[in-house]
Structures are given as structure tokens and as C-alpha cells.
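Q: Give me a protein?
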Amino acid sequence: MSAAAIAERRFLQQQRCRILYRKALKSVLDWAVHRDIFYIEGEKTRLQFEANRDVQNLETIDRLLFEGEARLAKLQHPDPYVVPWSPGGSKYARNPPVPPVIGLVNDFGRESSH
């Protein structure tokens, strides 16, 4: 395997690891809504990632990432937290924009005074 191919593979592994870590923290937040519990559980998650920080073998890293992604999929919350104003949130599109077929009048009844 060429040096460029190894560098590309390592870059993709780092990217997968970052994405996995962010998703793991978001999953922890789904289970532990209170911040004090989230900080404790988030630290445990960080320690699990730090335990494998110095692994250099590319195949071992791929295996660890695959196992982590499978574990994350298994531990997903059945009703994850959604920010209220995001799609799927309780406030999303509560006040939708005015349809373009309805014209807005900004002079509030004074249109005949021109």
C-alpha cells in the first residue's frame, strides 16, 4: 500500500472517529437530559475513546470503529431529544410563512387615502 493510500485511509479513520464521538455524546444527551449526569456520562465516553488513542494498526482501528458504530446503533434512544425549532421538534413550523398567493398589505386600511 502506498504512503498516499495509507494517509488517506488514516484521514478517513480520523473523520469516522470524530463523527462517532459526536454521535456518542449526542446519544448520551438523549439518555441523560440533566447536565450534571451528562457531564459524568460524557466523561466516561471520552475515557473509552482515549483508551484506544494510541492504536496504530489500520485494521485494528477499522475493527474498533465498526464495533463502536454497532454499539452506538444498539444503544440509540427510542425517542431521541430534538431541539424544538429543528425539523421534528415541537415548535418546528408552528408559525409557517405566509403563502405567496396571499398578498400582504402594510398600510393597515389606509389604502384609500392616497
Notes: The longest helix spans residues 3-31. The two ends are 79 Å apart (CA to CA). The chain has a mean pLDDT of 88.
